[in-house]
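Lecture 7 notes: from sequence to structure.
We start with the chain below.
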Amino acid sequence: MEKKLPVQSFLALAAIGWSDGSLQRIESAGLVRAAKECGLEGDALAKVESASKEKHSLDGIDLTGLTKWEQVLTYALASWFAALDGVVSTSEHETLVSVGDKLGLDQALRVRATTVANDIACLPGGGKPDRYDFVKLVERLKERMPQLVG
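Predicted structure tokens for the same chain:
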């Protein structure tokens, strides 16, 4: 099961969280857990932990070079992350759109990735960052978009 993502993906998630002015504790915990579950460790994980404590924006985060699979998985996580505190603010929505643009994803893939992320969030306890099932997210994305798995 391939669920590893580069650190840039998680820095983009942090930018979404910070876009409304603050990163809530639940968002910080979800970000760090997602990074660990998706294979980050060492210096890369330390960068994500730092991004969960210090405000930063999407500027300077390079999302080019990701495979289509990594792009869709990043966007699915971004969709989940934007809604993690229960409200998707206008600024979070705008940053999510910018992430999708930087990833080069068309609208249809964005909608499909968001739907899968929401499916997993709706599982019992799935709306909480400590219960969100990243393994199931990867499996569901593979089921729904097998052409992207490479």
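Points to note: The mean pLDDT is 89. The two ends are 11 Å apart (CA to CA).
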